[in-house]
Write a structure and sequence with these properties.
28% of the residues lie in helices and 22% in strands. It is of the alpha/beta class. The strands form 8 sheets. The chain has a 4-stranded parallel β-sheet with strand order 7-6-5-8, with helices on one face. Strands 14-13-15-16 form a 4-stranded parallel β-sheet, with helices on one face.
């Protein structure tokens, strides 16, 4: 629903007739899910409330609240190629959790916003509950208008939004003076690095370069009180294999937080295409799923010819909306569940969701790692999280060459010609209007089919200027 709000329902500015007069006022929203804040990316103030409050609002009653403190979050610079909105949001989550923003509004501002398309802003807005804040607002600017045009809004209403925002002082321009906030943080986007979060909380960010060592440390703590076990031989459908500690039991491309971002969805699908082409297949103990936030995702993946590539690795569409990220992962295969319980195996999940609390994803999966979608794919291929490193040597293909997934937007030269990166996730919102791949020969090719996706625009921030506290 949050993605549908963004793509279709959000108006930004209401335009009504009342008592013979034409009235304009800002769009607002309350919803019974905490991630209602995704709409903040479009410059619309909204957040999650309880059922009674939501029903009261539906009946025309006001929602009362204390005037909150507003924490300004200044963004400067530009994200490096190879880093994504998920890397950014995990960094921001870590920073805001350390600062403490419970019960407060967060507002993003600064010239760095000009480098963030709407999809990235929406991802940040969606994660407001993980920050601890009530909402995470963006201003109205040119990127807002571009997104509204892209999503088919009425041109006359878009012009009205711009005129109203400029007149009311809600319009963002580069170089404008900072507002006065209750508190303020700052982040240079160029310092953001590829990351994941886990194994139990979204604010526990782990740089990808440290993923291997950090995972081993967490695993060592998890098995400290265990006398035996840790591995088991399992036979499923006539195939026998071993499951051991660190096995990735669930790999899910899920949650509107991330599936609303076309750039990383396309990167995930391109990675799946290249993986299948190199002979990589699903490990039998991994449960996979694809759950987009709206049918728009399915539409552009189908038009780009990428749905079959995801399906080839087991990422079939299981539904739309919240699935694995809220515990709707469903059961594992009975033989695998029995092996995990009997041998006390510490299993893992890798998901693109916003919450990775222990027991939330699956009662038998103790360690859960949130990452962007194109890291959900390679991790399920080796299906043992301990193989993760800055450049993943995920699996051996039929041609005996290594499959690698680089985290840089540029090809990395290797000393051995057998280590060839077959995908560079350069199809980020900062990149050009096409998705780029590195082929097995090391040359760069472009995916023109994805060109229309790259135009996804960015959003705004509302100018909330709180009164200074005494």
């Amino acid at each position: 629903m949050h993605q549908v709000n963004l793509e279709y329902l959000g108006r930004v500015v209401f335009d009504i007739e009342k008592d013979g007069e034409r009235l304009l006022y800002p769009d607002t929203l309350v919803g019974t899910d905490s991630h209602t804040t995704m709409i903040n990316g479009l410059g619309i103030l909204g957040w999650g409330v309880g059922g009674i409050e939501a029903e009261a609002a539906m009946l025309g009653q006001p929602i009362t609240m204390l005037i909150p403190q507003v924490v300004g979050f200044k963004l400067t610079g530009t994200l490096k190629e190879g880093t994504t909105a998920t890397d950014l949001v995990l960094t921001v989550t870590e920073m805001l959790r350390k600062r403490g923003v419970v019960g407060k509004f967060v507002e993003f501002f600064g010239d760095g916003l000009g480098q963030l398309p709407l999809a990235d802003r929406a991802t940040l807005g969606n994660m407001s509950p993980e920050f601890g804040s009530t909402c995470a607002m963006f201003p109205i600017d040119d990127e807002t208008l571009r997104y509204l045009k892209l999503s088919g809004r009425d041109p006359e209403h878009i012009s009205l939004i711009e005129a109203y925002a400029r007149e009311q002082g809600m319009w963002r321009e580069d170089g404008e003076p900072d507002a006065l906030y209750s508190d303020q943080l700052e982040l240079d986007l160029s310092t953001v690095e590829p990351s994941l979060a886990g194994p139990k909380r979204p604010q526990d960010r782990i740089p990808l370069s440290r993923a291997d060592s950090d995972f081993r440390d967490h695993l060592k703590q998890a098995v400290a009180d265990r006398d035996s076990g840790g591995s088991a031989e399992v036979t499923v459908d006539g195939e026998t294999f071993e499951i051991r500690d660190g096995a990735v039991l669930i790999a899910a491309i899920t949650s509107c937080t991330n599936t609303s971002n076309p750039a990383v969805m396309l990167a995930s699908a391109l990675l799946a295409r290249n993986a299948a082409a190199r002979g990589l297949r699903t490990k039998p103990w991994v449960k996979t799923s694809l759950a987009p936030g709206s049918k728009v995702v399915t539409d552009y993946l189908e038009k780009a010819g990428l749905m079959d590539d995801l399906a080839a690795l087991g990422f079939y569409t299981v539904g739309y909306g919240c699935t694995t990220c809220i515990g709707n992962s469903g059961p594992l295969k009975p033989e695998i569940e029995k092996a995990v319980q009997d041998a006390k195996i510490i299993g893992c999940s890798v998901l693109s969701g916003n919450r990775n609390f222990e027991g939330r994803i699956h009662p038998l999966v103790q360690m859960n790692f949130s990452r962007h979608r194109h890291w959900s794919s390679p991790t399920r291929l080796p299906a043992v999280l301990k193989s993760t490193c800055s450049t993943i040597h995920s699996a051996t293909t039929r041609t005996a060459s290594r499959f690698t997934c680089a985290t840089s937007g540029r090809p990395q030269r290797k000393s051995s010609t057998r280590l060839l990166p077959i995908l560079i996730p350069a199809c980020s919102p900062r990149a050009t209007t096409v998705c780029s791949m590195v082929t097995a020969t090391g040359t760069v090719s472009t995916c023109r089919k994805a060109k229309y996706i790259r135009g996804i625009p960015t959003l705004p921030t509302s100018r909330i200027r709180p009164t200074p506290r005494a």
